[in-house]
Structure formats: C-alpha cells, structure tokens
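Today's session is about reading a structure prediction critically. Students often jump straight to the picture, but the first step is always the sequence itself: look for stretches that repeat, for charged clusters, for runs of hydrophobic residues. Only then move on to the predicted structure, which in these notes is written as discrete structure tokens rather than atom positions. Here is the chain we will use throughout the hour.
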Amino acid sequence: MTSSEKQTALKKILCIGNVSVDIKAYSPEEDENESYRDGTIELVPGGVGRGMAVNLKHLGFDSYIFSVVGEDIFGRYLKDGLDNENVNTSLLRRSSTHKTALFSVMASVNKRASCIYNTSILKEIVLDQAALDVIKQENIRTFVMDSNLNEETLKAFYDLKKADPDIFIFQNATSPDIARKTLDFAPLMDLFAANEFEAQAILGETPIPDISTADKMQQLGFKNFIITFGNRGVMVRIGTETWIEPPYKPSFIADTIGAGDAFASGFLTGYLEKLSIRQCIHYGLACAKETLLTKQTVSNKLSRDFLDSI
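Below is the predicted structure for this chain, in token form.
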C-alpha cells in the first residue's frame, strides 16, 4: 500500500463499542436521604462508541459504527440518530435477545453523580466473518475501541493488528471498573486515552499530571497515551516526550458527559493528520470546551470548519 493509499484508508474509522441511551436525572434540591426531589430528567443518545463515531464524522472522517442495539424503541431511536448523522450503520446489529444498553445517571447539588447501567447486550459484538468482510470491502484500517467490549473481541482486533502492523488502533479506557482489561493489549495500542479515575484504576494509585505518572504508565506497556484531569488539564505522552496543558475553561458548564470523548476525537483528528502534538492537544481542548457547553453528549458545533477556524 502506498503512503497516499494509507492516508486515504486512515480517513475511514470504525468505532467499536457502546451505543446507549443515557437517562440523566438532576435535582437542584439538597436531600441527605436522597429520596423524592423535584428536578429534570432527560433522555440523550450516549455511549463511547456512538460519541466517538459522531464526533469523528463531524470532524471530517468517514465514520462507521460496530455495535448492537435491541429490538426496542431505544434501539430504533439510536439507529435513526446515527443515520441522521450520516454515520455508516451497516455493522450496527439488532439483538432479539437483549435490550438496548441503558445508563441511568443521577446527580444533585453538592453530590457526585452516580450511574447504574446495563450493557449486557455488548457481549454480542463479535468480530465474525461478516464484520471482517465489511472491514475488507471498505478498506478500513483505523479502529477506535472502547473497553466495554469483551476480552475475546478485544483480542480478535489486536490479532488483526499483530498480522498487519499498519492497522491503527485507538483504545479508550471507558470507565474505572473496566479500565484494567486494557493492560494485556497495551503494547499493541497506537494511542490510549483515560481520565484520571481510569488511570487510577490502572495504576493502583492516584495519578498526578507530571512526568512520574507518565513514566509509570509507560512502564506498564502504554507507549502513547492521553490522561485527562478535568479542571487540572491534560497530560500527553508520545514516545519519550511529555506535554502537560491546562484546560480551556468555558464560561459555564452545562454537562461534563461526553467531554472526554470530544477531547479524544479532536486529538485523534490532528494525530492521524500528523500535526504537531501541541496542535493535537489544541484541537482536543477546543472540542472538549464546546461539548461542556451542551447537555448533549456531542456538540453540534464541532466540524472540520470549526477546527480550521481555531
């Protein structure tokens, strides 16, 4: 494959992972008993797989989603939304045995948000021959994966990487309770992303945005990675070099959910285009800032023109 063909192939990205509905409840009232309170309840499309696929489509890539939804109203809602975003859904499968993944996020004033979820449907994401045929026919060589995938599916994709080192894999830690399953595949990843809580689960200690934390992550096998630290900014280690940057703070924050995926999408855009790492971080922080301004998990403001304008 020529260098030009490789660049064309990298513009096609298959996002593999969760497509869900987030049920977000918030109350401005304080209640120590966490009982009945007035507030707001919103249903928004979510999931790391979906978030990355839609963000990357907005940012100019040919985006594909590989996931499973149920034969229910939530599944139809999610597929219609992805189709409307012009994400390729040829690998979005329908399950007759499991319900669409749901996340219930509950938050109140001065309380950390809690989440209850059911993602059992995701065990049906299997790299079978039909999926391999689509990957081959479409010449997809860039994979974005979240860690909700079962270990057999993760291994199957990394086996593709072993057979063809030119395949590019971006791995998202996704959540603290499943972040450690990425350890076995760390040396094969081209780029890894985690937030501070996911990094803590991997390291077994509280991470700080400095070179010592970057060194410890690298000793575990992660070569190139991003760790976001909320209002403390972001740390990036690529090879032997480390960048630590403060966040771009918006005038207010509507919701934090989706900001990490937005940062990863912006950074990945620059990284695949071989821009400087500082420019990649700039893209990521700008995308995250815009996402913090909306209650949706993806900001409609993100686009290729948006990146060019900043």
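Discussion point for the tutorial: The mean pLDDT is 92.
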